Structure formats: C-alpha cells, structure tokens
C-alpha cells in the first residue's frame, strides 16, 4: 500500500492553504482513492498486454506453405486482375478458354484479366456466377477467356465420395499476392456440414488460407481438382477452419456452363 508520509511530503499544501492537521481528517478517503486508482492501473495494464506469441501477417499467411518461384507444377492456377491490372484473387484453368473462381471474387468487382505465373495475361470475355450464390455457399463462378491459354489445365474430380476423413489435400493460391502451395500434412479433408453441403471443410492447426487465396485450387492427393478456395472461419480472432466449394456438387452445372458460348 501507499506510504502517506511520502504523499504528504510532496503535496503543495501551502499553495492550497492546507495543513497536515486538516489533511489528516481526509487521510482515510485519500488512502482509499489512491488504492482504487492503483487497482485500475493494474487491471488496465493486464487487459492491454499483447500476447508474446503474436506473429506477423506474412508469417501467418506463409505458415504451412511453400512459395512457388519457378518450375511451377501448378501452372493452371493463376491470378485475377481488374481492368487497371489490380490484383483481385485467384482462379484455376480447367479448359484452354475457361477458368473457375469463387463467385465473391467476381461480384462487385471489375474482373478483366486472368494472368498465369509466367506473366502471360488473358482477357475475360464472359462471367457466369452460380444462380444460387450467397456468401460462402454456392460460391462459384465460371469465366470465359477471350483467347486460349496453352497452360496445362486442372482435371476436375468426378469421385468426391471417395474422399476419406483426414485425407490429405493440397491448396494453391495467391494469398498476399504471393503464389504458394501448401506443404505436406498441412491440410486434410475434414468433412461437410449437413446445412452447407456445397462446402468442403478443412481444419487449420498447421496453416491457413488467406485473403487472395480465394478462387484458388484444392487438389486431392491424386492431383484432381476437388474444390475452389472460398473462406476462412474465425473465432475470437483466431482462424479455426477453411472452406472450399465442393466441385463434385456442381458437375452438371459446370458441364452446361462451360459448354455455353
């Protein structure tokens, strides 16, 4: 507690026409006030302490991933650009003139170009958003290119039911505008929710997708495209799960949309 002899010593009593006798009358009140203020300081300090384990955004985005710089084995995954060549998100080439992305990357944005990792840019002539799209559900769009792209296309899955709980998955996207691929044992198929069967769920103990990865690819171990990256779920400031559009649920719609002119 406070030594009030020190308080008395430094109080400018003469300036306020006080004396020690009169101040003693209020000693109890002063002691209670000072102690209350000290408690407030302790509480405030404990509430505003920054956790020592806090990491930078770049460390968070790259944890569990390798940056792709050259010899790109996932050349089918590219980036989407606006008419002013501003980065918007990721996309996956599934036919020489057609890419898939998340619908939320298209809605309300000025998507105009698809660019591959070697810098080649292709104009987008047509956009088709799934008619049932709502945020994080039916989150899928087909983009038609103005000219054919010669990169190797991703192969769509046709056997989603063969995915097993905790089967390893591979994520490729442009989080923080950096092309990256998840390391081994980073992502696993966790399952789907009954109320949201169009979304593949993955847990995030070793890494997470991030803003910019949306529209990117989720591959199964055999190399087939099973999902389009769409979302990350948070709880109390921490990422707890990742989501991707379950392409097996859209085979019929994709076939019709891709073959439209």
Describe this protein with a few key phrases.
alpha+beta; Thrombin, subunit H; 3 domains
Instruction: Give the H and E element order.
Output: HHHHEEEEEEEEEEEEEEEH
Note poorly predicted spans. 1-25, 34-53
Give the overall shape: globular
> What name does the CATH topology of the largest domain carry?
Thrombin, subunit H
What is the CA-CA span between the terminal residues? 81 Å
Q: Average pLDDT, to the nearest integer?
A: 81
Give the helix level as a range of percent.
10-25%
Summarize this entry quickly.
With 261 residues, the chain is α+β, with helices and mostly antiparallel strands.
Q: Mind explaining what this structure looks like?
A:
The protein is α+β, with helices and mostly antiparallel strands. The chain has three domains: about 5-45; about 75-155 and about 255-260, Beta Barrel (Thrombin, subunit H), CATH 2.40.10.10; about 160-250, Trypsin-like serine proteases (Thrombin, subunit H). The chain contains five helices and 15 strands. The protein has helices at about 5-10, 20-25, 25-45, 55-60, 250-260; strands at about 65, 75-80, 85-95, 100, 110-115, 120-130, 140-145, 170-175, 180, 185-190, 190-195, 195-205, 215-220, 225-235, 240-245. Strand 5 and strand 6 (about 120-130) form a beta hairpin. It is globular, with a radius of gyration of 29 Å. Mean pLDDT is about 80; it is low at about 1-25 and about 35-55.
